[in-house]
Automatic annotation (TrEMBL):
Record-stated family: Belongs to the cytochrome P450 family.
UniProt KW Oxidoreductase keyword: yes
Database matches in InterPro entries: Cyt_P450, Cyt_P450_B, Cyt_P450_CS, Cyt_P450_sf
Pfam families: p450
The name this protein goes by in its record: Cytochrome P450
Highest taxon, organism lineage: Bacteria
PROSITE patterns: CYTOCHROME_P450
Swiss-Prot/TrEMBL keywords: Heme, Iron, Metal-binding, Monooxygenase, Oxidoreductase
Length: 369
């Protein structure tokens, strides 16, 4: 790495699975190794904001934090959201039809998941304009200490916003996820104040940054492969395998979030040292020819598809069932209602957002007719 940090990147499918499942030699909790490591870059409160949640924890904290949130992510809760998600998608497409213009990321792929997660949490719909930038600044800086310095004001603003939101919800609780988490803190003492704020932060960031990419990248893959797009339109029974294939083909999370070696060990004849950064290449694993036939080909009817776009092991994505429903509804609604979609012929600037964590487009201008 440019800052002198020793780092390893897995590129094979089998190695990715090994790294994701290895809780003995690999940790998610940087502070357990070197508490001072990020202290010079991020002040304590902002460090707590980004780290006191399940994705940056090892058992037993991980087990406890995940169990609390899992209570809300029941199949029943997600089923209840399905009609809401459909409504949100149809409303966005109504607006697109009225204006006759579609910038697929800004007008559709982004607002859909952010509205869904905001409603689940009980955040007012319009507030997302506030935290869009804060979230994006962090994602683009992840794994880069220098860039994290520039993201610090955004983290601070995000933390203050969440603290005010929690105070307001404490006064007037609802049947939303934030109220449920406040209850777990206030009444049952099952999560600390820092963990409460950090868990809500994780749900907002993980709940939309990823799904935007499933919808945006999925649409791009379809428009780049018109034969597959035609096939799906002709045969709606392909939907289940199609969404999985789109998750594999342009995996929304390119690299699983950071892990560190918690002790020295040998791997494929190389010396991994305690404190080394371990990056798990999900995108690479999902194109490994040893695991997938003809991995560079988009095949919406692919049956043998054990992709790891949602990770693996104890940190397997908690929101996967929700994300799958969002992806299915978003893409099928677009294809049904806008039959002549194509990438704007004048558009030549296809660009992925910076940062190694995610694979997502900056913009995708579309012609409707
Ligand atoms: C297409 C959309 C999504 C993709 C590709 C995705 C991918 C992932 C991946 C790869 C991980 C594991 C990261 C690691 O091991 O370092 C993860 C964890 C997680 N995801 Fe997602 N995610 C998506 C949508 C969502 C949604 C909608 C939510 C809902 C709030 C969500 C919540 C979480 C949470 C809470 C974790 C942490 C789980 C744990 O540490 O036990 N994700 N996700």
């Amino acid at each position: 790495m440019t800052d002198g940090q020793r780092a390893w990147l897995t590129t094979r499918y089998d190695d990715a699975i090994l790294a994701l499942k290895d809780n003995e030699r690999i940790t998610k909790n940087l502070q357990s190794l070197s508490p001072e490591d990020y202290a010079s870059v991020i002040p304590e409160k902002e460090m707590a904001l980004i780290s006191k949640q399940m994705l940056s924890s090892d058992p037993p904290d991980h087990t406890r934090l995940r169990a609390i949130v899992s209570k809300a992510f029941t199949p029943q809760m997600i089923d209840r959201m399905e009609s809401d998600i459909q409504r949100i998608a149809e409303d966005l497409i109504d607006r697109i039809e009225q204006t006759g213009k579609l910038e697929a990321i800004e007008d559709f792929a982004f607002p859909l998941p952010i509205t869904v997660i905001s409603r689940m949490l009980g955040i007012p719909d319009d507030d997302y304009v506030l935290f869009k930038r804060w979230s994006s600044d962090f994602i683009e800086a992840a794994n880069n200490r220098e860039k994290l310095k520039t993201a610090f004001p955004s983290l601070q603003a995000f933390r203050l916003y969440l603290e005010e939101l929690i105070d307001a919800r404490r006064k007037t609780p609802g049947d939303d996820l934030i109220s449920l988490l406040i209850q777990a803190h206030d009444d049952q003492d099952r999560l600390s104040g820092d963990e409460l704020v950090s868990t809500i932060w994780l749900l907002i960031v993980a709940g939309h940054e990823t799904t935007v990419n499933l919808i945006g990248n999925g649409l791009l893959a379809l428009l780049e492969n018109p034969d597959q797009l035609r096939l799906w339109r002709q045969d709606p029974s392909l939907t289940a395998t199609a969404v999985e294939e789109l998750l594999r083909y342009y995996s929304p999370v390119e690299i699983a979030t950071s892990r560190w070696a918690s002790r020295d060990f040998e791997w494929h004849g190389k010396d991994v040292r305690k404190g080394d950064l371990i990056l798990v290449g999900l995108g690479a694993a999902n194109r490994d020819p040893a695991q997938f036939d003809d991995p560079g080909r988009l095949d919406l009817s692919r049956k043998k598809n054990k992709h790891i776009a949602f990770g693996n092991g104890i940190h397997f994505c908690l929101g996967a069932p929700l994300a799958r429903i969002e992806g299915r509804i978003a893409l099928t609604a677009l294809l049904r209602r806008l039959p002549n979609l194509r990438i704007s012929p004048s558009f030549t600037g296809l660009e992925w957002r910076p940062g190694i964590l995610m694979r997502g487009l900056r913009e995708l201008p579309i012609e409707l007719r």
